């Protein structure tokens, strides 16, 4: 074995494939692409599930800590844009995930053919595009409404309905556009989710094996839990009357799907995974 000189006392040489320089270059390119995709994919997931919380909770903590309750105009614009874009993205991603569950349960032998990489990439791009279009269109329209000097927002964040209520001009055109986007980004994905789970339920009921039925239920339970928490909060909040007691409930519900739902995501998704459970047991020393 080749010996190292004295200067390498505090370092080591990683040989790897140094005897095959051409293979090293091929492996570099392949691993760089795969690593970039892994970072991009996981960063996307983190961005989607944290932006809801990050867009409003830090500002709310500042307001709760001291007497200063102000937020700058630019800060309000950023908050509204983040809230609308990430909210729209999550609504559509939940529908995409429901279709994924449908393919896994109802068409297991054709799953890889149905959910091929090009389709997955297209669906994710559609989700991001829809969320960004929602924010790009609605944020300027909401922020440019005349408020006649009014600056008190009856909420703890710059939420679109609260800002529209402050307008001192006829905002029915903006409200109709809000309704149209709500149908496309909230109700249509929800309808697709319900249809997917209708097919899944019908397929599960025809399965005779209890073990296979339980496996199908476990496949869908985590996603269905998130859908129930997320959509339940949003639908209840936006269908309530306008009196003060219900407005306070709306504030708490906004907190719920901004803080509680993201907090539960690791428990609902990751910790239900057998590999993650096994890794945690090893880390904790429980074999």
UniProtKB/TrEMBL annotation:
Keywords: Cell membrane, G-protein coupled receptor, Membrane, Olfaction, Receptor, Sensory transduction, Transducer, Transmembrane, Transmembrane helix
Cellular component terms (Gene Ontology): plasma membrane
Pfam family, one: 7tm_4
Transmembrane segments: 26-50, 70-99, 111-137, 176-200, 221-239, 251-271
Primary localization class, coarse: membrane
Signal peptide: none
Subcellular location: Cell membrane
Occurrences of domain G-protein coupled receptors family 1 profile (ranges): 9-269
UniProt xrefs under InterPro entries: GPCR_Rhodpsn, GPCR_Rhodpsn_7TM, Olfact_rcpt
One Gene Ontology MF term: olfactory receptor activity
Membrane topology (UniProt): Multi-pass membrane protein
Keyword Thylakoid among record annotations: no
Keyword Transmembrane: yes
Family listed: Belongs to the G-protein coupled receptor 1 family.
Name the record gives this protein: Olfactory receptor
Organism this protein belongs to: Saimiri boliviensis boliviensis (Bolivian squirrel monkey)
